[in-house]
Design goal:
562 residues; three-stranded mixed sheet; two-stranded antiparallel sheet; DUF885 domain-containing protein; 2 domains; 3% strand; DUF885
Length: 562
């Protein structure tokens, strides 16, 4: 097992220094994280995804927690900035260790966000401006076989220990690997002529490693996990929920909250649906009508440009009125996601020095015609004022916080909760002016309420309430969850299937959108109550976005103080 005792300074110093030393040490172990941060030395490497490599990351967490114990006793450690950083670092590392020590890494198979997905996605954010950049990419391409082999070794150890991934995500992942065939060579083809031969050879080794991993997953892994449960049960779910939400949730209360939001949103959706198609019966009939007859963007390039304009217009309208944005935070790019991505749009934050801007990514899923109602609030979520304003602002104020709070310490429910709050904020501010865009926003909100219901419901196999319009009194199964989700969403069948596979392979993450939004709303309400008529929403938003990451344990309390 690798030993990394010398990877941090020997003295404890203060919590923020311990946190930032952790970032430096983790980047040395995980160059994917380094590239996302913009660390040039990382761009030619990939992490060790073998059991030994993952054990080294866990050892680093343990050593950092020991240093944090010392640092919290140092003079000055009780200041607000040190206290918040220390609480975040302790909570994040403790949650990550709980997952690792339960051997969850030995069965990490997903259609989204797995180590293999990260190892491919990192190429899309690696600099490509110079021949030197492309030489680093060639070296990173040559590192793909070892990284993929390490991942395979980790999964094989899981099989030996009877720790199986769920069959459905396994099947989906195999399909994705199949779709990725030739992707690395296509990516490398954009490189300079002077390095063409080297890049092509390196890309072919990466593509061959993808084929080898697909064949092993198909021929060895999938048969071995056939018949394993697709759901994780209450104990594993609680562990993952803590990891993604930064709190130990009352899961039964959260499930009930999901249902209360479902009923509230359904009533609002019916009101908007009646404006679009009188007598439609259900909101989803009206949404289906919009799929055919509503406003659309035709063409992949055209939709990318339209989304860019939407974000640019939002920045122009919000900056100076509801936010105060630095020039470098104002820059955000709209991109099309590479083939083989999951169906949901996503965002990648800027590098620490902003040499790479924040970017939104739209998976087209082979489509060339895009309904507007489905895009507006989604890009308020992914771009502005959602993920981009929060994560870019964290990077902008990292010097006042710590690198850790602004980057690796991210709590999923905090970030996703802010992005969902941002959608609601745009509705509150009057940006959703017609029934078409407003029902699209409500449909997106309903999707997040349904996530709480089905993610908790199917993994804990809870009972469907008696007042549910869907199978009351029955116990949730993945099959019922997919049927329910599809019946209460405008999304196409392939999106719904991708979503349910995501929930099965990343338990506890999807609930953070709605529960995180609730925390942001409670925090704002607390600040409004404290300030009364003097409450300044613009000042509150900027102070809230400048705190860095917080788990839901701390978020409401800290927001209420601002």
């Amino acid at each position: 097992m690798p030993h990394i005792a010398s990877s941090q300074p020997p003295t404890a110093r203060l919590p923020r220094q311990v946190a930032d030393a952790y970032v430096d040490a983790l980047v040395a172990l995980d160059p994917v994280e380094g590239t996302f941060l913009g660390v040039r030395e990382s761009h030619s490497k990939l992490p060790d995804l073998s059991p030994a490599g993952l054990a080294a990351v866990a050892d680093l967490a343990r050593e950092t927690l020991a240093r944090l114990d010392e640092a919290e006793r140092a003079p000055g450690a009780d200041s607000d900035v040190e206290r918040r950083c220390a609480r975040l670092l302790r909570e994040r590392l403790t949650a990550a260790l709980a997952v690792h020590e339960a051997d969850e890494h030995l069965r990490e198979v997903s259609n989204l966000g797995s180590p293999i997905h990260n190892a491919r996605e990192v190429f899309t954010v690696t600099p490509t401006d110079t021949d030197e950049d492309w030489a680093a990419i060639a070296e990173r391409l040559r590192a793909v076989p070892a990284a993929f082999a390490g991942y395979r070794e980790t999964l094989a150890l899981g099989l030996d220990r009877k720790l199986h991934a769920a069959p459905r995500p396994t099947e989906t992942f195999i399909g994705q690997l199949d779709e990725w065939q030739g992707w690395f060579e296509d990516f490398a083809a954009a490189g300079p002529q002077a390095l063409r031969e080297e890049l092509t050879a390196a890309a072919r080794t990466a593509d061959a490693a993808t084929v080898e991993l697909r064949d092993w997953m198909r021929d060895v892994y999938a048969p071995a996990v056939e018949g394993a449960p697709n759901v994780v049960g209450r104990e594993r779910y609680a562990r993952w929920s803590r990891y993604y939400n930064g709190t130990d949730l009352d899961l039964d209360e959260a499930y009930a909250y999901g249902w209360s939001e479902f009923h509230r949103l359904l009533a609002e959706m019916r009101t908007e649906a009646e404006k679009i198609l009188p007598g439609a019966g259900t909101p989803w009939v009206a949404l289906a009508h919009l799929d055919e007859h509503g406003r659309h963007i035709e063409g992949v390039d055209e939709v990318r440009e339209w989304l860019q304009k939407l974000m640019d217009e939002a920045i122009g309208a919000l900056d100076g009125t509801h936010f105060e944005l630095a020039d470098r935070v104002r820059e955000v790019e709209s991109r099309i996601a590479p083939p083989g991505s999951a169906a949901a749009p996503y965002y990648t934050p800027p590098s620490e020095d902003f040499s790479r801007p924040g970017r939104t990514w739209l998976p087209t899923m082979g489509q060339t015609r895009f309904p507007v109602y489905d895009l507006v609030s989604t890009w308020y979520h992914e771009g502005v004022p959602g993920h981009h304003l929060q994560l870019a602002q964290w990077a902008h104020v990292a010097g006042d916080l710590s690198r850790y709070q602004a980057t690796l310490g991210i709590v999923s429910a905090n970030a996703e909760g802010w992005a969902l709050y941002a959608e609601r904020l745009m509705d509150e501010l009057g940006f959703l002016t017609d029934a078409e865009t407003r029902i699209g926003y409500l449909d997106a909100q309903m999707m997040r309420a349904c996530r709480v219901i089905v993610d908790i419901g199917m993994h804990l196999e809870l009972e469907i309430p008696a007042d549910s319009p869907f199978h009351p009194g029955e116990r949730w199964t993945p099959e019922l969850a997919q049927e329910f989700f599809g019946a209460h969403s405008s999304r196409p069948a392939d999106f719904v299937e991708s979503e349910l596979t995501r929930y099965l392979s990343i338990p506890g993450q999807a609930i953070g959108y709605k529960l995180g939004e609730r925390a942001w709303l409670l925090g704002r309400a607390g600040a409004q109550a404290a300030h009364g008529d003097s409450f300044d929403a613009k000042a509150w938003h900027m102070a809230a976005l400048s705190q860095g990451s917080l788990g839901l344990d701390d978020l409401v309390e800290e927001l209420s103080k601002l």
